[in-house]
Amino acid sequence: DKNGTRVGSTRALFTATNAGGRAAFALESVAAMDCIFDVKNVVVVHHSFCGTTTLTPELIVNEFHDHHHADISTLFDHDSLAIMDFEESLNYDVKLLRDSPAVPKHVKLYGFFYEISSGKLTEVVRDIPA
Fold first, then answer.
1. Is residue 74 exposed (0-12), middle (13-18) or buried (19+ Cβ within 10 Å)?
2. CA-closest candidate to residue 109, choices 98, 122, 99, 100
3. Complete edge-to-edge strand list for the sheet that includes strand 108-115
């Protein structure tokens, strides 16, 4: 651009948004972005008033079955389907990323909670390789 920033430079920011904001559904994006842009940091952000806090994994599976007559119970990691507790879900998601071969071991991982009403962003978990 006019400031000399190259597309795909380490100064670029990429957003992957998905239902529930869970890391399991962003793994493919992390792997692809690392191949193209050499990712340095991955940040997971969960927010207040999230619709998935009104659901449970069992409810999602059962409702899908009732509406579509299809069993999705083995397709997804049940711990990634809903948010029962923000701190717990952020810790889970950062660990899931760290343990995944789709995330290079040098990548710094962060988990934040965004309070929509106040606009406050709070760091909940940090995993920086030694």
1. exposed
2. 98
3. 41-47, 108-115, 120-127
